[in-house]
Task: structure prediction
Amino acid sequence: MRKVGGRTRGTKLERERATERKGEILVLGNDVQQDVKRAIEKALRKVAEEKAAAREEAAEWKRKYELERARNSELIMKGLSSDSLHNSKCEWLTKSRDQTERQNSDNDQTERCCGKHGICTHQFLRDESPESDCKVGSNKVTRKASFKLAWGCNGDRNGQHRHDIVSFDKGDITTAERSSKQIALKWESQPQTVVLLTKPNSVTVRIKCAEMVRWLKDIKRLDVIVEPRVRKELLEDSAFFDFVQTWEHDDELSDLHKKVDLVVTLGGDGTVLWASSLFNGPVPPLVSFSLGSLGFMTPFQIEDYKNSLDSILKGPISITLRHRLQCHVIRESAKTDPETEGPILVLNEVTIDRGISSFLTNLECYCDDSFVTSVQGDGLILSTTSGSTAYSLAAGGSMVHPQVPGILFTPICPHSLSFRPLILPECVTVRVQVPYNSRGSAWASFDGKDRRQLGAGDALICSMAQWPVPTACQVDSTHDFLHSIHEGLHWNLRKSQSFDGPRDS
Result:
Protein backbone atom coordinates (compact mmCIF):
# COMPACT_ATOMS: atom_id res chain seq x y z
CA MET A 1 0.00 0.00 0.00
CA ARG A 2 2.89 2.40 0.64
CA LYS A 3 4.23 1.83 -2.79
CA VAL A 4 0.84 2.53 -4.20
CA GLY A 5 0.56 5.68 -2.13
CA GLY A 6 4.04 6.76 -3.22
CA ARG A 7 3.12 6.23 -6.81
CA THR A 8 -0.03 8.26 -6.29
CA ARG A 9 1.88 11.09 -4.75
CA GLY A 10 4.52 10.90 -7.56
CA THR A 11 1.82 10.99 -10.20
CA LYS A 12 0.27 14.11 -8.68
CA LEU A 13 3.65 15.84 -8.56
CA GLU A 14 4.30 14.97 -12.22
CA ARG A 15 0.90 16.31 -13.22
CA GLU A 16 1.49 19.54 -11.31
CA ARG A 17 4.90 19.98 -12.95
CA ALA A 18 3.45 19.24 -16.38
CA THR A 19 0.74 21.83 -15.78
CA GLU A 20 3.37 24.39 -14.77
CA ARG A 21 5.41 23.63 -17.92
CA LYS A 22 2.31 24.06 -20.10
CA GLY A 23 1.67 27.39 -18.47
CA GLU A 24 5.25 28.45 -19.11
CA ILE A 25 4.96 27.33 -22.75
CA LEU A 26 1.73 29.28 -23.18
CA VAL A 27 3.33 32.38 -21.68
CA LEU A 28 6.41 31.90 -23.87
CA GLY A 29 4.20 31.38 -26.94
CA ASN A 30 2.35 34.58 -26.18
CA ASP A 31 5.63 36.44 -25.86
CA VAL A 32 6.85 35.04 -29.18
CA GLN A 33 3.59 36.04 -30.84
CA GLN A 34 3.94 39.54 -29.46
CA ASP A 35 7.53 39.74 -30.72
CA VAL A 36 6.48 38.51 -34.18
CA LYS A 37 3.62 40.98 -34.23
CA ARG A 38 5.92 43.84 -33.27
CA ALA A 39 8.44 42.76 -35.94
CA ILE A 40 5.72 42.67 -38.60
CA GLU A 41 4.44 46.08 -37.56
CA LYS A 42 7.99 47.43 -37.65
CA ALA A 43 8.56 45.98 -41.13
CA LEU A 44 5.27 47.45 -42.38
CA ARG A 45 6.19 50.86 -40.96
CA LYS A 46 9.60 50.61 -42.64
CA VAL A 47 8.02 49.71 -45.99
CA ALA A 48 5.56 52.60 -45.67
CA GLU A 49 8.41 54.99 -44.82
CA GLU A 50 10.45 53.73 -47.77
CA LYS A 51 7.49 54.19 -50.12
CA ALA A 52 6.94 57.69 -48.84
CA ALA A 53 10.64 58.48 -49.21
CA ALA A 54 10.62 57.04 -52.73
CA ARG A 55 7.63 59.18 -53.68
CA GLU A 56 9.32 62.26 -52.27
CA GLU A 57 12.54 61.42 -54.13
CA ALA A 58 10.65 60.86 -57.38
CA ALA A 59 8.83 64.17 -56.94
CA GLU A 60 12.12 65.92 -56.22
CA TRP A 61 13.77 64.48 -59.32
CA LYS A 62 10.76 65.35 -61.42
CA ARG A 63 11.03 68.92 -60.17
CA LYS A 64 14.76 69.01 -60.96
CA TYR A 65 14.15 67.54 -64.39
CA GLU A 66 11.49 70.11 -65.19
CA LEU A 67 13.79 72.90 -64.03
CA GLU A 68 16.56 71.53 -66.24
CA ARG A 69 14.25 71.37 -69.24
CA ALA A 70 13.13 74.94 -68.56
CA ARG A 71 16.75 76.02 -68.32
CA ASN A 72 17.60 74.31 -71.61
CA SER A 73 14.60 75.98 -73.24
CA GLU A 74 15.84 79.37 -72.08
CA LEU A 75 19.29 78.64 -73.51
CA ILE A 76 17.73 77.57 -76.79
CA MET A 77 15.65 80.77 -76.86
CA LYS A 78 18.79 82.81 -76.40
CA GLY A 79 20.89 80.89 -78.93
CA LEU A 80 18.37 80.26 -81.70
CA SER A 81 16.15 82.51 -83.74
CA SER A 82 12.43 82.13 -83.83
CA ASP A 83 12.76 80.40 -87.19
CA SER A 84 15.07 77.77 -85.71
CA LEU A 85 12.64 77.19 -82.87
CA HIS A 86 9.93 76.78 -85.46
CA ASN A 87 12.10 74.25 -87.21
CA SER A 88 12.26 72.07 -84.09
CA LYS A 89 8.50 71.64 -83.86
CA CYS A 90 6.85 68.61 -85.44
CA GLU A 91 3.26 67.72 -84.84
CA TRP A 92 1.50 64.41 -84.79
CA LEU A 93 -1.03 64.19 -87.56
CA THR A 94 -4.54 62.94 -87.03
CA LYS A 95 -6.22 60.48 -89.33
CA SER A 96 -9.64 62.07 -89.58
CA ARG A 97 -10.85 62.78 -93.09
CA ASP A 98 -12.45 66.02 -91.90
CA GLN A 99 -8.96 67.37 -91.03
CA THR A 100 -7.25 66.48 -94.32
CA GLU A 101 -6.61 70.09 -95.31
CA ARG A 102 -5.07 70.86 -91.94
CA GLN A 103 -2.88 67.77 -92.32
CA ASN A 104 -1.60 68.95 -95.69
CA SER A 105 -0.64 72.34 -94.28
CA ASP A 106 1.12 70.66 -91.36
CA ASN A 107 2.97 68.42 -93.82
CA ASP A 108 4.23 71.42 -95.74
CA GLN A 109 5.31 73.05 -92.50
CA THR A 110 7.19 69.90 -91.44
CA GLU A 111 8.95 69.66 -94.80
CA ARG A 112 10.09 73.25 -94.55
CA CYS A 113 11.26 72.59 -91.01
CA CYS A 114 13.38 69.58 -91.86
CA GLY A 115 14.70 70.97 -95.11
CA LYS A 116 16.51 73.84 -93.43
CA HIS A 117 18.62 71.59 -91.23
CA GLY A 118 20.27 69.80 -94.12
CA ILE A 119 21.01 66.77 -91.94
CA CYS A 120 17.47 65.60 -91.33
CA THR A 121 15.83 62.75 -93.17
CA HIS A 122 12.12 62.58 -93.80
CA GLN A 123 10.16 60.04 -95.79
CA PHE A 124 6.53 60.24 -96.77
CA LEU A 125 4.53 57.03 -96.87
CA ARG A 126 1.06 57.85 -98.00
CA ASP A 127 -2.10 56.05 -98.99
CA GLU A 128 -1.41 55.09 -102.58
CA SER A 129 -5.06 55.42 -103.58
CA PRO A 130 -6.74 58.00 -101.35
CA GLU A 131 -9.68 58.32 -103.67
CA SER A 132 -10.40 54.58 -103.89
CA ASP A 133 -13.81 53.57 -102.60
CA CYS A 134 -14.79 50.41 -100.81
CA LYS A 135 -18.40 49.22 -101.08
CA VAL A 136 -19.99 47.67 -98.05
CA GLY A 137 -23.47 46.25 -98.74
CA SER A 138 -25.68 47.35 -101.62
CA ASN A 139 -26.64 50.88 -100.61
CA LYS A 140 -23.94 52.04 -98.14
CA VAL A 141 -20.65 53.32 -99.64
CA THR A 142 -17.65 54.09 -97.37
CA ARG A 143 -14.12 55.26 -98.11
CA LYS A 144 -11.07 53.80 -96.41
CA ALA A 145 -9.62 56.46 -94.07
CA SER A 146 -6.22 57.76 -95.10
CA PHE A 147 -3.61 57.92 -92.36
CA LYS A 148 0.01 58.70 -91.69
CA LEU A 149 2.22 57.15 -89.03
CA ALA A 150 5.04 59.50 -87.99
CA TRP A 151 7.85 58.77 -85.60
CA GLY A 152 8.03 61.29 -82.76
CA CYS A 153 10.38 64.05 -83.83
CA ASN A 154 11.17 65.11 -80.26
CA GLY A 155 12.83 68.19 -81.71
CA ASP A 156 12.99 70.00 -78.38
CA ARG A 157 15.39 67.35 -77.09
CA ASN A 158 17.69 66.39 -79.90
CA GLY A 159 16.70 68.24 -83.06
CA GLN A 160 16.83 65.10 -85.19
CA HIS A 161 13.70 65.08 -87.36
CA ARG A 162 12.92 61.57 -88.55
CA HIS A 163 9.65 60.63 -90.15
CA ASP A 164 8.82 57.07 -91.05
CA ILE A 165 5.36 57.29 -92.56
CA VAL A 166 3.73 54.14 -93.85
CA SER A 167 0.89 53.57 -96.27
CA PHE A 168 -1.62 50.80 -96.64
CA ASP A 169 -2.98 49.04 -99.70
CA LYS A 170 -6.06 46.88 -99.23
CA GLY A 171 -5.53 46.88 -95.50
CA ASP A 172 -1.85 45.86 -95.56
CA ILE A 173 0.65 48.30 -94.06
CA THR A 174 3.70 48.72 -96.27
CA THR A 175 6.85 50.80 -95.93
CA ALA A 176 7.45 53.11 -98.86
CA GLU A 177 10.93 54.32 -97.89
CA ARG A 178 13.34 53.87 -95.03
CA SER A 179 15.57 56.44 -93.39
CA SER A 180 18.77 54.42 -93.86
CA LYS A 181 19.74 55.82 -97.24
CA GLN A 182 23.30 56.79 -97.91
CA ILE A 183 23.85 60.49 -97.35
CA ALA A 184 25.70 62.58 -99.91
CA LEU A 185 27.27 66.00 -99.41
CA LYS A 186 27.54 68.39 -102.33
CA TRP A 187 29.37 71.68 -102.05
CA GLU A 188 27.38 74.71 -103.16
CA SER A 189 30.46 76.91 -102.95
CA GLN A 190 34.15 76.14 -102.95
CA PRO A 191 35.67 75.46 -99.48
CA GLN A 192 38.04 78.16 -98.32
CA THR A 193 39.29 77.19 -94.84
CA VAL A 194 40.56 73.88 -93.45
CA VAL A 195 41.41 73.08 -89.84
CA LEU A 196 44.08 70.41 -89.43
CA LEU A 197 44.20 68.38 -86.19
CA THR A 198 47.00 65.91 -85.47
CA LYS A 199 48.00 63.20 -83.02
CA PRO A 200 50.70 64.54 -80.67
CA ASN A 201 54.16 63.10 -80.01
CA SER A 202 54.51 61.35 -83.37
CA VAL A 203 57.38 62.07 -85.73
CA THR A 204 55.55 60.52 -88.69
CA VAL A 205 52.46 62.63 -88.10
CA ARG A 206 54.58 65.78 -87.73
CA ILE A 207 56.27 65.17 -91.10
CA LYS A 208 53.01 64.40 -92.90
CA CYS A 209 51.35 67.44 -91.32
CA ALA A 210 54.01 69.82 -92.66
CA GLU A 211 53.76 68.22 -96.10
CA MET A 212 49.96 68.48 -96.19
CA VAL A 213 49.89 72.08 -94.95
CA ARG A 214 52.32 73.12 -97.69
CA TRP A 215 50.22 71.33 -100.33
CA LEU A 216 46.93 72.85 -99.12
CA LYS A 217 48.40 76.35 -99.26
CA ASP A 218 50.48 76.19 -102.45
CA ILE A 219 48.31 73.94 -104.62
CA LYS A 220 44.76 74.27 -103.29
CA ARG A 221 45.03 77.90 -102.15
CA LEU A 222 43.24 77.23 -98.87
CA ASP A 223 43.53 78.94 -95.51
CA VAL A 224 44.85 76.52 -92.91
CA ILE A 225 44.12 76.58 -89.16
CA VAL A 226 46.00 74.33 -86.73
CA GLU A 227 46.27 73.93 -82.98
CA PRO A 228 48.68 76.25 -81.13
CA ARG A 229 51.00 73.29 -80.44
CA VAL A 230 51.13 72.36 -84.13
CA ARG A 231 51.80 75.93 -85.26
CA LYS A 232 54.73 76.12 -82.86
CA GLU A 233 56.14 72.86 -84.25
CA LEU A 234 55.73 74.05 -87.84
CA LEU A 235 57.52 77.34 -87.15
CA GLU A 236 60.35 75.42 -85.49
CA ASP A 237 60.80 73.54 -88.76
CA SER A 238 60.54 76.51 -91.11
CA ALA A 239 59.52 80.17 -91.12
CA PHE A 240 57.57 79.40 -94.29
CA PHE A 241 54.62 78.29 -92.16
CA ASP A 242 54.04 81.74 -90.75
CA PHE A 243 50.78 81.91 -92.76
CA VAL A 244 49.25 79.16 -90.64
CA GLN A 245 46.48 80.42 -88.34
CA THR A 246 45.57 79.23 -84.85
CA TRP A 247 43.60 80.29 -81.79
CA GLU A 248 44.96 81.81 -78.60
CA HIS A 249 42.18 81.15 -76.11
CA ASP A 250 39.74 78.27 -75.71
CA ASP A 251 36.87 80.73 -75.81
CA GLU A 252 37.52 81.18 -79.53
CA LEU A 253 36.58 77.55 -80.17
CA SER A 254 32.89 78.31 -79.72
CA ASP A 255 32.92 80.17 -83.05
CA LEU A 256 35.30 77.82 -84.86
CA HIS A 257 32.51 76.13 -86.83
CA LYS A 258 31.61 79.52 -88.34
CA LYS A 259 35.04 79.85 -89.90
CA VAL A 260 35.90 76.30 -90.94
CA ASP A 261 34.63 74.51 -94.05
CA LEU A 262 36.44 71.21 -93.56
CA VAL A 263 38.17 69.38 -90.69
CA VAL A 264 41.11 67.08 -91.46
CA THR A 265 42.58 64.76 -88.81
CA LEU A 266 45.89 62.91 -88.90
CA GLY A 267 45.94 60.09 -86.37
CA GLY A 268 43.61 57.41 -85.11
CA ASP A 269 40.14 57.27 -83.61
CA GLY A 270 41.38 59.20 -80.58
CA THR A 271 42.18 62.16 -82.83
CA VAL A 272 38.64 62.01 -84.23
CA LEU A 273 37.27 62.06 -80.67
CA TRP A 274 39.47 65.06 -79.91
CA ALA A 275 38.19 66.85 -83.02
CA SER A 276 34.61 66.16 -81.95
CA SER A 277 35.25 67.61 -78.48
CA LEU A 278 36.34 70.94 -79.99
CA PHE A 279 32.86 71.52 -81.41
CA ASN A 280 30.06 71.81 -78.87
CA GLY A 281 27.67 72.83 -81.62
CA PRO A 282 27.63 72.22 -85.37
CA VAL A 283 30.55 70.22 -86.74
CA PRO A 284 31.96 70.80 -90.25
CA PRO A 285 32.53 67.75 -92.49
CA LEU A 286 35.44 65.72 -91.14
CA VAL A 287 38.04 63.80 -93.16
CA SER A 288 40.16 61.40 -91.12
CA PHE A 289 43.44 59.90 -92.33
CA SER A 290 44.64 56.71 -90.66
CA LEU A 291 47.84 57.12 -88.69
CA GLY A 292 46.78 55.16 -85.62
CA SER A 293 46.20 51.53 -84.62
CA LEU A 294 42.76 50.17 -85.55
CA GLY A 295 41.02 53.12 -87.15
CA PHE A 296 37.29 52.38 -87.16
CA MET A 297 36.60 56.02 -88.02
CA THR A 298 39.67 56.70 -90.20
CA PRO A 299 38.98 55.20 -93.65
CA PHE A 300 41.47 57.28 -95.67
CA GLN A 301 45.12 56.34 -96.16
CA ILE A 302 47.72 59.06 -95.71
CA GLU A 303 49.78 57.85 -98.68
CA ASP A 304 47.00 58.92 -101.05
CA TYR A 305 45.94 62.13 -99.29
CA LYS A 306 46.26 64.31 -102.40
CA ASN A 307 43.82 62.33 -104.51
CA SER A 308 41.47 61.88 -101.53
CA LEU A 309 41.36 65.58 -100.70
CA ASP A 310 41.01 66.51 -104.37
CA SER A 311 37.93 64.30 -104.65
CA ILE A 312 36.48 65.59 -101.39
CA LEU A 313 36.99 69.26 -102.22
CA LYS A 314 35.27 68.78 -105.58
CA GLY A 315 32.40 66.68 -104.22
CA PRO A 316 29.90 65.22 -103.95
CA ILE A 317 30.99 62.83 -101.20
CA SER A 318 29.29 60.19 -99.10
CA ILE A 319 29.18 60.97 -95.40
CA THR A 320 28.23 59.17 -92.20
CA LEU A 321 26.31 61.13 -89.60
CA ARG A 322 27.81 59.92 -86.34
CA HIS A 323 25.44 60.76 -83.52
CA ARG A 324 26.68 62.12 -80.21
CA LEU A 325 25.34 61.93 -76.66
CA GLN A 326 24.63 65.05 -74.64
CA CYS A 327 25.31 64.56 -70.93
CA HIS A 328 24.45 66.60 -67.85
CA VAL A 329 25.59 65.94 -64.28
CA ILE A 330 23.03 67.00 -61.66
CA ARG A 331 24.25 67.21 -58.09
CA GLU A 332 22.14 66.13 -55.13
CA SER A 333 22.99 69.38 -53.36
CA ALA A 334 20.81 71.32 -55.81
CA LYS A 335 18.01 72.99 -53.89
CA THR A 336 16.32 75.54 -56.13
CA ASP A 337 17.94 75.64 -59.55
CA PRO A 338 19.67 72.39 -60.50
CA GLU A 339 23.44 72.64 -60.17
CA THR A 340 24.21 71.09 -63.54
CA GLU A 341 27.56 70.42 -65.12
CA GLY A 342 27.43 70.35 -68.88
CA PRO A 343 26.38 69.87 -71.51
CA ILE A 344 29.16 67.41 -72.31
CA LEU A 345 29.10 65.91 -75.81
CA VAL A 346 30.57 62.44 -76.39
CA LEU A 347 31.08 60.65 -79.68
CA ASN A 348 31.88 57.17 -78.32
CA GLU A 349 30.54 56.60 -74.83
CA VAL A 350 30.04 57.80 -71.29
CA THR A 351 31.19 55.29 -68.66
CA ILE A 352 30.03 55.10 -65.04
CA ASP A 353 32.23 52.80 -62.95
CA ARG A 354 33.23 52.17 -59.33
CA GLY A 355 36.69 53.72 -59.65
CA ILE A 356 39.09 52.58 -56.92
CA SER A 357 36.30 51.44 -54.62
CA SER A 358 36.22 47.76 -53.65
CA PHE A 359 32.41 47.74 -53.50
CA LEU A 360 30.07 46.92 -56.33
CA THR A 361 28.69 49.90 -58.20
CA ASN A 362 25.04 50.48 -57.34
CA LEU A 363 23.23 52.52 -59.98
CA GLU A 364 19.53 53.16 -60.55
CA CYS A 365 18.64 53.61 -64.22
CA TYR A 366 15.57 55.31 -65.64
CA CYS A 367 14.40 55.75 -69.22
CA ASP A 368 11.97 58.65 -69.74
CA ASP A 369 10.92 58.47 -66.05
CA SER A 370 10.34 54.70 -66.34
CA PHE A 371 12.49 52.53 -64.09
CA VAL A 372 14.81 50.28 -66.12
CA THR A 373 16.97 48.38 -63.64
CA SER A 374 19.49 48.62 -60.83
CA VAL A 375 23.04 48.00 -61.97
CA GLN A 376 25.17 46.05 -59.52
CA GLY A 377 28.57 45.32 -60.95
CA ASP A 378 31.66 47.17 -62.11
CA GLY A 379 29.66 49.84 -63.91
CA LEU A 380 27.62 50.84 -66.95
CA ILE A 381 28.36 52.09 -70.47
CA LEU A 382 26.03 54.39 -72.39
CA SER A 383 27.36 54.32 -75.93
CA THR A 384 26.55 55.72 -79.33
CA THR A 385 26.44 53.35 -82.28
CA SER A 386 29.77 54.79 -83.43
CA GLY A 387 31.18 53.71 -80.06
CA SER A 388 29.73 50.20 -80.37
CA THR A 389 33.13 48.91 -81.54
CA ALA A 390 34.96 50.48 -78.57
CA TYR A 391 34.52 49.89 -74.81
CA SER A 392 30.96 48.62 -75.26
CA LEU A 393 32.18 45.83 -77.53
CA ALA A 394 34.82 44.79 -74.98
CA ALA A 395 32.07 44.63 -72.32
CA GLY A 396 29.92 42.30 -74.41
CA GLY A 397 27.81 44.78 -76.37
CA SER A 398 26.84 44.32 -80.00
CA MET A 399 28.46 45.97 -82.99
CA VAL A 400 25.99 48.39 -84.58
CA HIS A 401 26.12 50.28 -87.87
CA PRO A 402 26.98 53.92 -87.07
CA GLN A 403 23.98 55.28 -88.98
CA VAL A 404 21.55 53.32 -86.81
CA PRO A 405 20.25 55.93 -84.34
CA GLY A 406 20.23 54.55 -80.83
CA ILE A 407 21.81 54.43 -77.37
CA LEU A 408 23.62 51.27 -76.29
CA PHE A 409 23.00 50.26 -72.66
CA THR A 410 25.86 47.91 -71.75
CA PRO A 411 26.70 46.72 -68.21
CA ILE A 412 30.31 46.19 -67.14
CA CYS A 413 30.82 42.82 -65.41
CA PRO A 414 27.30 42.69 -63.92
CA HIS A 415 26.75 40.49 -60.86
CA SER A 416 23.87 38.77 -62.63
CA LEU A 417 23.91 36.14 -65.36
CA SER A 418 20.70 37.45 -66.91
CA PHE A 419 21.85 41.06 -67.35
CA ARG A 420 22.22 41.43 -71.10
CA PRO A 421 22.96 44.65 -73.06
CA LEU A 422 20.15 46.76 -74.52
CA ILE A 423 19.82 49.10 -77.49
CA LEU A 424 17.46 51.98 -76.75
CA PRO A 425 15.88 54.31 -79.35
CA GLU A 426 17.42 57.69 -79.99
CA CYS A 427 14.43 59.65 -78.69
CA VAL A 428 14.73 58.59 -75.04
CA THR A 429 16.41 60.35 -72.12
CA VAL A 430 18.41 58.07 -69.82
CA ARG A 431 18.99 58.99 -66.16
CA VAL A 432 21.57 57.11 -64.10
CA GLN A 433 21.47 57.92 -60.39
CA VAL A 434 23.63 56.87 -57.45
CA PRO A 435 21.12 55.83 -54.75
CA TYR A 436 21.31 57.33 -51.28
CA ASN A 437 22.06 53.94 -49.71
CA SER A 438 25.03 53.26 -52.00
CA ARG A 439 28.13 52.01 -50.17
CA GLY A 440 30.44 54.09 -52.31
CA SER A 441 30.52 56.76 -54.97
CA ALA A 442 30.74 56.25 -58.73
CA TRP A 443 32.92 57.87 -61.38
CA ALA A 444 31.85 59.08 -64.81
CA SER A 445 34.20 59.56 -67.76
CA PHE A 446 33.31 61.02 -71.13
CA ASP A 447 35.07 59.53 -74.16
CA GLY A 448 37.76 58.34 -71.76
CA LYS A 449 38.52 61.72 -70.20
CA ASP A 450 37.10 64.49 -68.00
CA ARG A 451 36.52 62.08 -65.11
CA ARG A 452 33.98 63.23 -62.51
CA GLN A 453 32.86 61.78 -59.20
CA LEU A 454 29.18 61.00 -58.57
CA GLY A 455 28.18 60.90 -54.92
CA ALA A 456 25.03 59.56 -53.32
CA GLY A 457 22.02 61.30 -54.87
CA ASP A 458 23.94 62.63 -57.88
CA ALA A 459 22.64 61.77 -61.33
CA LEU A 460 23.84 61.68 -64.93
CA ILE A 461 21.30 62.50 -67.65
CA CYS A 462 22.02 61.48 -71.26
CA SER A 463 20.11 62.10 -74.46
CA MET A 464 20.92 62.30 -78.14
CA ALA A 465 22.64 65.55 -79.08
CA GLN A 466 21.24 67.60 -81.92
CA TRP A 467 24.61 68.07 -83.65
CA PRO A 468 26.13 64.88 -85.19
CA VAL A 469 29.64 64.54 -86.56
CA PRO A 470 29.56 64.22 -90.38
CA THR A 471 32.54 62.06 -91.37
CA ALA A 472 33.54 61.56 -94.99
CA CYS A 473 33.39 58.02 -96.39
CA GLN A 474 35.94 56.46 -98.66
CA VAL A 475 33.23 54.51 -100.49
CA ASP A 476 30.00 54.69 -98.49
CA SER A 477 28.90 54.27 -94.90
CA THR A 478 28.16 50.55 -95.04
CA HIS A 479 31.30 49.62 -96.99
CA ASP A 480 33.52 51.58 -94.61
CA PHE A 481 31.89 50.02 -91.53
CA LEU A 482 32.23 46.46 -92.78
CA HIS A 483 35.79 47.10 -93.94
CA SER A 484 36.71 48.45 -90.50
CA ILE A 485 35.43 45.42 -88.58
CA HIS A 486 37.02 43.04 -91.07
CA GLU A 487 40.41 44.72 -91.06
CA GLY A 488 40.45 46.09 -87.51
CA LEU A 489 38.85 43.24 -85.58
CA HIS A 490 39.34 40.38 -88.07
CA TRP A 491 35.64 39.74 -87.59
CA ASN A 492 34.64 36.11 -88.25
CA LEU A 493 38.07 35.33 -89.66
CA ARG A 494 38.46 31.57 -89.93
CA LYS A 495 40.44 29.16 -92.04
CA SER A 496 38.16 27.82 -94.77
CA GLN A 497 37.07 24.21 -94.67
CA SER A 498 38.97 22.00 -97.12
CA PHE A 499 37.08 20.85 -100.17
CA ASP A 500 38.49 17.30 -100.22
CA GLY A 501 36.60 15.26 -97.67
CA PRO A 502 33.30 13.50 -96.97
CA ARG A 503 30.36 14.75 -99.01
CA ASP A 504 26.63 14.21 -98.99
CA SER A 505 25.78 11.33 -101.26
Remarks:
- The first helix runs from residue 2 to 79.
- The first strand starts at residue 121 and ends at 123.
